[in-house]
Write a structure and sequence with these properties.
With 467 residues, the protein is of the alpha/beta class. The protein is built from twelve helices and 14 strands. Strand 7 and strand 8 form a beta hairpin. Helix 5 crosses helix 6.
């Protein structure tokens, strides 16, 4: 049995037809949901990408210093699902174009093929960096970091001064990622495999291919203007609540949905190819997202403002189709922290001791759901937000203990009425859960610091020729 994990950056759960959206955005994903398990309450471990993917791929919580720079490498003591599967005889491959998931940040571990696209962008657009690119292919971390900075600095300059004058994207289009995966599969599908695809099309700047703009009547000039507005609100918090009009917001959402339609059509092509190769029926296909997007529900568009773990950002899709799984709508709350352990369970493989999560397959039919922790980050103010969520209630607080928000998700799903002062018993119970999570975080942090310290000591001893 094989596994294909498809993660879609910035995909909100409520923009899928199978989860109640009234627009035809995801016919392919909706069809897949009818073949297996559809989870209506899947919760990410956090926002942005650097907070969510440790949970998805390593079943661990994100841990980082509270600073204005929240990007941090995957902990050295974390074990990726790719590492576990490769040890169990699986051929492993990954195709994506998100620099925060690059080999520099540790996500290439356990993959036989790891194509994060950035290398090819550098070679294509920066001929002078070819020697540097060669170093990157040998895994030179410092060279990779420098190359990444050079490329993404160029992207930011283009954002600010050109406003995306062309249809060129700061990431690889879905059709490119998909074609790379198909080409790899044609040479590898005779072995059991684990394939991870991460798509960036639903991520801003929202520049869908021309054929998906036919009914929207949005010009390129308007697209550039809308993208500038989103950038402005990220740089200036005072613009957040008044910088985007209702009409502009509608157009932004329309562009987001157009990108989703484009991505969904590529998934149809991909699934058709899997069927043609004869691997579709023998493969577990998992679709989920690292986090969602805000569309002014809490004063922002996107996910890079004050990243409080509201449901618009942490409620994500989760669909699992595969051998032996019959159609089932699972209304139980589950955490993506438990996704990698669940993959091992599906494959009848032993548990991984370093995974903090547990398979959610045995508890699907149980009456009660366990609470879920998620984290967010405000880079501008160096504040970290932590939430504890049950199907009915959610508490959001910050690492400095200055803000507390308690919401009744059944009566107030949009999280607009803070009941913290009115429901002190529930708030106190949830605060205890968050404090316990912080205690676990501190243990992980200390372990990671000790590993880093020992690695540096070994490096120095080797340099001195003592070992």
């Amino acid at each position: 049995m094989n596994v294909i994990l498809i993660t879609i950056d910035c995909l909100r759960a409520d923009h899928l037809g199978c989860l109640g959206y009234d627009k035809k955005t995801t016919p392919t994903i909706d069809s897949l949901a009818k073949e297996g398990f559809l989870f209506t309450q899947a919760i990410s471990t956090g926002v942005p990408t650097s907070n969510s993917f440790p949970g998805i791929l390593a079943s661990t919580y994100p841990v980082y210093e509270v600073s204005k720079h929240h990007w941090r490498k995957l902990p050295k003591n974390a074990t990726l699902i790719s590492e576990v599967l490769r040890k169990n005889g699986y051929t492993t491959a990954a195709f994506h174009s998100n620099p925060m998931l690059s080999r520099y940040y540790g996500y290439s571990r356990g993959f036989d093929i790891f194509d994060d696209s950035l290398l090819f962008k550098i070679i294509e657009r920066r001929n002078k960096l070819q020697n540097l690119a060669k170093k990157i292919t040998r895994g030179h971390a410092k060279a990779y970091k420098l190359a990444a900075k050079i490329y993404w600095t160029g992207v930011k300059i283009k954002n600010l001064f050109q406003g995306y004058l062309s249809q060129d994207q700061p990431y690889e289009r879905a059709e490119i990622i998909t074609q790379k995966a198909i080409s790899w599969l044609k040479n590898s599908c005779n072995k059991k495999f684990f394939l991870w695809l991460h798509y960036m099309d639903v991520h801003e700047p929202y520049l869908p291919p021309r054929e998906y703009l036919k009914n929207l009547k949005i010009s390129k000039r308007e697209q550039r203007k809308l993208w500038r507005k989103i950038l402005q609100q990220e740089r200036n918090k005072n613009l957040a609540s008044k910088g985007i009009s209702e009409d502009e917001l509608k157009k932004i959402v329309d562009l987001y949905d157009a990108e989703l339609r484009y991505l969904d059509s590529n998934l149809k092509f991909f699934f058709d190819e899997l069927k043609e190769m004869g691997v579709y029926d023998d493969t577990f296909i998992i679709i989920t997202s690292d986090h969602g997007q805000e569309f002014m529900e809490h004063g922002w568009v996107g996910h890079r403002g004050k990243q409080k773990p509201y449901d618009t950002l942490i409620h994500v899709p989760l669909i699992i189709k595969g051998p032996g799984l019959e159609r089932n709508v699972v209304r139980k709350q589950v955490s993506l922290l438990d996704l990698s352990p669940t993959i091992l369970d599906l494959l009848n493989l032993p548990k991984e001791s370093r995974f903090l999560g547990k398979s959610f397959l045995p508890i699907i039919d149980e009456e009660n759901s366990k609470g879920v922790i998620s984290v967010g980050h405000d880079m501008g103010d160096a504040v970290r937000f932590i939430s504890y969520r049950t199907p009915e209630w959610k508490l959001i607080t910050d690492n400095k203990g200055k803000t507390y928000e308690l919401y009744n998700l059944k009566k107030d799903p949009n999280e607009t009425r803070n009941l913290y002062e009115e429901e002190r018993d529930i708030a106190k119970e949830f605060e205890t859960k968050i404090k316990e999570h912080i205690r676990i975080e501190n243990i992980i942090e200390k372990t990671e610091s000790e590993i880093t310290r020992m690695a540096e000591k070994l490096r120095k001893l080797k340099k001195l020729g003592k070992i």
